[in-house]
Design goal:
The chain is mainly β. It folds into two domains: 124 residues, no CATH class; 159 residues, Pectate Lyase C-like. The chain is 9% helix and 40% strand. The protein has an eleven-stranded parallel beta sheet, with helices on one face. Strands 3-8-11-14-17-20-23-26-30-34 form a ten-stranded parallel beta sheet, with no helix packed on it. It is elongated.
């Protein structure tokens, strides 16, 4: 395709009809790339699970679903079972205004609001807000690789704000996960994920977990504040059977317990983890606590400011 006013001496056209056919083909290709935009209006009360799922089912890669500003209530789980969708909320003043709220489900039936299903790849979420109402299960569960989550809030879950399970290559940026019963952002068996420029605070357990074979995960410039408030976890950031965890340029403050904790319940190595250039302050435990030190190999710790904690680097049986 040539930009406006450009010419090519090497390209000739046999007829006006051929020229028109080629132009129409190109327009159709661009239209396909642009995709279709669908809208979920805020009903402010009635259950929207089915309406949201219908929009997902109608969509194809490259399509966008806009969750319009206002309150959206869900008694079931919406399954993102397609590839390459963009789910976008609205925002005002740098805060999401599309509020997804978990409504009471069938007694005993814990559900998340959104699941990115296993096999669904490269989906994008931007400017969404999920309030779990302290009902069971995470606000959002991610099983699909390549998921990207931007500028979104996850709060008041009866479990985790975001639960990432056997999903790889995620990018999470500009996210806030707070006031959740256990963990802000939980990773299990999920490698090569990046959490950046985000906030995890005042969760009942950890702000972030890197567990169960979540190798080569990065946590950069995250504010980790007053986590493990109710001693439901092991500290601000918990690590267990995770090789290549990198935690850097973070502020970890006022943890109820250890700021960074190698828990090692799984009795598997944590090899090649790097903790550097962080500010770790005012923990009720140690800045870095290592349980079963023989499992933590090739650990790099440098450039950190660690003051006001009960201990600096602590080793436990």
């Amino acid at each position: 395709m040539f930009a406006a006013c450009e010419k090519s001496d090497s390209l000739t056209w046999s007829s006006t009809a051929e020229r028109a056919a080629d132009f129409n083909t190109e327009i159709n290709q661009l239209a396909a790339l642009a995709g279709t935009t669908r809208y979920l209006p805020a009903l402010n009360g009635p259950d929207e699970t089915s309406a949201f799922q219908t929009l997902i089912n109608q969509s194809a890669p490259g399509d966008e679903i806009v969750i319009m500003a206002g309150n959206h209530y869900f008694s079931g789980t919406v399954h993102i079972n397609k590839n390459g969708l963009t789910i976008r909320g609205e925002q005002s003043g740098g805060n999401p205004t599309s509020c997804l709220r978990k409504a009471s489900a069938t007694p005993g039936a814990g559900v998340s609001v959104i699941d990115v299903d296993a096999g669904a790849i490269n989906n994008v979420f931007d400017w969404i807000y999920i309030d779990g109402g302290m009902l069971p299960e995470p606000n959002m569960r991610v099983f699909g690789n390549g998921t990207k989550i931007y500028n979104s809030h996850f709060r008041n879950s009866g479990h985790s704000g975001i639960l990432i399970h056997q999903a790889h290559g995620l990018w999470i940026e500009g996210v806030k996960a707070y006031y959740n019963y256990i963990v802000g952002i939980s990773q299990w068996g999920s490698s090569d994920n990046y959490i950046k420029n985000s906030q995890v605070y005042e969760n009942g357990g950890e702000g972030i977990t890197i567990d169960g074979g979540s190798h080569n995960c990065f946590v950069e410039n995250v504010w980790v504040y007053k986590n493990n408030m109710y001693n439901r976890g092991v500290g601000g950031i918990g690590i267990d059977q995770a090789n290549g965890a990198n935690i850097f340029n973070c502020t970890i403050d006022q943890t109820y317990g250890h700021a960074i904790r190698f828990q090692n319940n799984l009795d598997q190595p944590d090899d090649g983890c790097q903790i550097y250039d962080n500010t770790i302050t005012n923990s009720q435990g140690c800045a870095i606590s290592i349980r079963k030190p023989y499992l933590v190999t090739n650990l790099g710790v440098w450039g950190n400011t660690m003051v006001g904690n009960t201990g600096t680097i602590c080793y436990e049986p």
